[in-house]
Amino acid sequence: MSSDPHAAIPKAMDKLKPSRIGLLDLGKLDPDKIGGKTGVELEYHWYNGANRQKPPLVFLHEGLGCAALWRGFPGRLCAETGRSVLVYSRAGYGLSTVRADPYDVDYMHVEALDVLPLVLEAFKVRQPILIGHSDGASIALIQAALGVIPVSGLILESPHVVVEAESIAGIQKAKQIYETTDLRKRLKRHHRNADRTFWQWNDIWLDPRFRDWDIRGILERIECPVLAIQGLDDEYGTLRQIDEIEARVNTEFGRLVLPNCGHTPHRDQEEQVFLAMRSFVDVF
Question: pTM score, two decimals?
Answer without folding.
Answer: 0.92
